[in-house]
Amino acid sequence: MLKVERDQSIQDKLYILADAAKYDVSCTSSGVERRGAKGALGNSRACGICHSFAADGRCISLLKILMTNHCVFDCKYCMNRKSNDIPRATFSPQEICDLTVEFYKRNYIEGLFLSSGVLGSPATTMERMCETLYLLRHTYHFRGYIHVKAIPGAPDDLLAMAGLLADRISINMELPTEESLRSLAPHKSFTTILSPMHKIQSTIAAHRVALGKQAQMERSTINGYLPGSIFRVERGIEGEETAPLALPQSADLTRPFAPAGQSTQMMIGASGESDFQLLMTSQRLYQSFDLKRVFYSAYIPLNEDRALPDLDTPVPLLREHRLYQADWLLRFYGFHAEELLSAQDPFFNPQMDPKCHWAVHHLEQFPVEVSRVSMELLLRVPGIGPKSAKRIVQARRYATLSFDDLKKMGVVLKRAHYFITCNGKMLYHIPIEQSFITRQLVDLQRKEQWQVVETSNHRQMSLFDDFGVH
Predict the structure, then answer these.
(1) pLDDT digit string, tens, across residues 357-373
(2) Which SS3 state, helix, strand or coil, does residue 149 take?
(3) What is the pTM of this model?
(4) CA-CA distance, 301 to 311, in Å (whole number)?
(5) Residue ranges of the alpha helices (H) in 383-431?
(6) Residues with Cβ < 8 Å from 239, sequence gap 6 or more?
(7) Of 293, 377, 385, 443, whose CA is between 20 and 30 Å from 142?
(8) What is the pLDDT of residues 120-164, one digit of tens each?
(9) Backbone phi, then psi, for 169, in 5-degree steps?
(10) Cα–Cα distance between 377 and 420 in angstroms, integer?
(11) Rg, the chain, Cα only
């Protein structure tokens, strides 16, 4: 039986459990510690505060904590695994509610990000998390944003309750293949992870229809695949479409089920998968589960184990950055994973972003004339994004475009000029040759690479540094 420390203050628990939550990256940590100053308004705290973004683009600050860092599992990559000798703590549902409400009143946060280790069993842990959310919503009438991490193996009725109480619900996939999961997390399985993801996806879609809303299937039909088809075939989850979760009769069905959708997380560098394998898995997740996001977490070597990278292995931050860029191309630029990489070329060039990597390997398609090229190919030009592409298509109906016009529209000409012409002319007389353009683009992106690798800080500061709690 797990021992729960009984003499810890709320500050002690918050220090331990906010710090333990930093390894879950399904949000964006602020990473800023800035004290208030006389004559100025407000300050910034890094520990426990993370950011999410609303549909209208607003940045929402969240209290990011674990309910407990006790865990019955012994996943080799996890700092909170049961075999590690680390300080442990557990919040009660009431303590989490008090923290959330008090921080909200002080304008530190607008919502809550709640995850947890597995205390006793998945059912027990999920029940305590649902109790927390229920108290927040119905006792404290908290209407702020809540993101909850569901526990694999939790009963369906608790998943249903979590979806009704939270805005976003997510289950961490952690590793992209069953082989890696068996090696590094033998207590977990793809069935216990993917099955609830199917049920949540089905319930979100069914609830949209019940509310009279049109089902939003754009992400589910990327590349022409039907929802759920790939993972049931490739991962052994076969049979008919997964039935939605049974919602309690007392539930307020006028509120959307998990209105912010679901997401997941995969680690990079803990196991030996290539970028191609990771990106293919992400593509299948988008196709199968209508996910809002797949988050990537560069593995930080914390535990000593023969199955893991050595403790002095550099954190693959630049690789994580390239995968996020590639993920963006899948979701918003119409790329397929098979176009960006292949089994023969399974890794991105770390010195060049994935869009440039694709373009220099397909120079037979360039340069393109911006006054005539299709929207689809325009989006594939490095330096041209969805907004600038739309502006180009609209403006070229009425006028002949110049390079100065493109710059005003937001086109990044220092990348784009290698791949486009205006009125049949390139900006500079340069050879359309792979090695030459590659050298220029790599040199252009050195500053970005330095910022990613050298300025990142894995340490998550404490909300209570000012009070001497260490």
Answers:
(1) 999 999 999 999 999 99
(2) strand
(3) 0.82
(4) 5
(5) 386-395, 403-408, 413-416
(6) 232
(7) 293
(8) 999 999 999 999 999 999 999 998 889 999 999 999 999 999 999
(9) -125, 140
(10) 11
(11) 24
